[in-house]
User: Fold this.
Amino acid sequence: MMKTCHSILAGLCLATIAGCGGSSSGKSNPPDAPTPPNILFIVIDDVGVDQFDFYGYGGAVPPQTPSLQTIADEGLTFRNAWAMPTCTPTRATYFTGRYPSSTNILNAVVQTDLANSEISPYEMTLPRLLKTAGYTSAMIGKMHLTGTNLGTSANLPYGLQTMWKLGFDHFDGYLDGAPYPIDTRAGLKTWGDDVAEGPYQCGFVPRASFENGADSGACYFVDNTCTDLSVSEPGDTAPGRTCMEQGGIFDPGQICQAATPDHIDFEAQNGYYTGKFVWSDADGSAGEVLATDASARGYRSTLETDRAIEWVNAQSGDTPWMLSLGYSAVHAPLQLPPKALIAEDTPGRNDPLVCSPASSEIEGVPGAITSMIDDRLITNLMIEAMDREIGRLLVETGLATRTEDGTLQYNPDSNTVVVITGDNGTYVNSVKITAPGQFDMTRAKGSPYQTGVNVPLLVTGAIVREPGREVPHQVSSPDLYRLFADIAGADIDAHIHADRPLDGQPMLAYLTDPAAEAVREINFSEMGTNFVNPEAGIVPQPCVVEAANTCFVIFPNKALCDDQSGVWYGEGSILPDIPGAGFAHCGQVMSYRKALDPDDATKVLPDSSKAASDGTYKLVRMNRKTYTEDLENPVNAEYTGLNTNMDEFYRIDMLATPNPVIDREGDELLIGEAPLDISDPVGFGQLNSEAQAAYIRLKQEMDKRDAVAAYNYNYDTDDINGCPGDGNRDFKVDETDLANWEELSELNRHPTEHYAQSTWYDFNHDGKTDEADRYIIETNLGRICTPPEV
Assistant:
């Protein structure tokens, strides 16, 4: 049975990324004051501004998004909102108010990372802060803030209670970063045990006109019921798809039996049509709902909306609330949504599109790129389906109504602020490269370029003055922390350590004052490398995303690489002449590819990438490993031990429509080793005075961020400039640290080796929380540490 959620949220707010304006502190309202507004915070996955016609973009065929359009029309549209280049770093900024390098949450958390690269339970997280103002908080769907419970749960110290420990009164979602891969067997063990080895790319049995298809069959459900399905007309939906949409598994060409056949596999996950939901409540109780439960079967955007509606409608109305709802869509895999959520006239609705990834079609052909047409059409369909569900959420919770013509109309009397945003730019295959927009798919999600970080941010509610306007000023994702705090009336100054100030800037004035001036002079985004867990038992290997010309070593297996439409170069790759154990790093991959094609342009993902902008000029700094080259025997290529550190300087204009001025390769005003030589008359001297001043200002910001990143990255291990033993980051090593170590050293023990696994008190980063870490605390006991200069 689905676990019912009971908790209250603090504010229903429509936002995406940061902004500025408003006070950074305040007190809870007195008992006789009006109830503070609820906040509804919706995060959509892998969707940048390039997708939307209400931003003036959307490409030749934009998705239909009437619900989001209504929110934009009746609220604010932020045109210069930045996220971080990838999901976990951005999402962590919402709930900590800090840039990634301030928390060491530098990339999407995967199974092989240490807990040191996850949100610490010792942070003043947003739900904790809002609780001081009387709010209750819930999180539903995807947020990807923590480690995983896969394997030995090596980086999940508090297990299924993790979101409760971070302050959420209710959680009903999943810990990992994406839906599971599509089950190409469509749930039929007759095709084997491997979900990747079936013939059904979209996870369902197609019509009989397709190979291995069927127009009739038995649809089995997890409650041991069954329905016979059949179709005959050319335009009818495949019964296999209908069955999948209803949460069932279709047995083609068969009729219902008294008992479910053994080859029906309800345990397997099937992309967007199943889930593994983790729940926890305010009393610390927690559990897990698997695909064998009916409440975990169905389309994800619908399941996530259902859970959100149930929670909101269960609130008493006496306590303000904040609900953070993370939609899975449109993260890979790209899978067809239910037809019922798509308008009849939407392009692609009734076409036999091929779901993504389809890497099996291109393996063995390095340099080939799968067709993007189907990917972009399916992306449109998934965005439209999510938009439909957002509209249902607003209506069924009383935040909006439908007019006679079906138009959504926001209800200002709901006392709820709604904030909608994206966690990073659009992923490579889905980027709108045609006009209007003409964004850059080679510099999309995972990069600090405009296509990778410029995200939608919409805010509506009674608090918004002069709705329907655009805000041109720069905002950044950590600014949302301050926005939510200010809406709730929480006192930031009373709860944030003065020596560790927030990175987020106040942005409430943008809502309340149409004439508010810019608060944030410089926008900033970054991505880096998480701490790797040597005890994870899994070694990441190379994956190449062809369309982005990028090689990276993050994923521990082929299935995750496939999900990103990547080509796998690790163990199990079927490419010719690759060692059975696969390649170990991207240097070997680049030598291999250059041996096949001397013009191959694949680059290694930077160890760190940062961007800073004043809204007109933008500085990008990339730090990459360099490798030797061996075309005859690529396995001999090695890391040189040196990295390149390059500055790229651009002019941008995100206020321009229909096609913005973005940071494309070849459009640099200047490029060179960082920092650029400002005494060079040939390079820097050719810039006009305005550009020169902008570079110097942005360089100063970048240098400061580099210094902060180095300080925090070495905080646990640097005896001189760091603070070994200070696990709760209060700049002192004391008895509290010993007590915290005592607790964590008893949690999440390895199932066979029996040591406590990775936690925030694993100071030597060996994947164990053991006596060696206690010794570090005892050695430094009484030490007072110096905060970084910011």
Observations:
- Residues 135 and 542 are 45 Å apart (CA to CA).
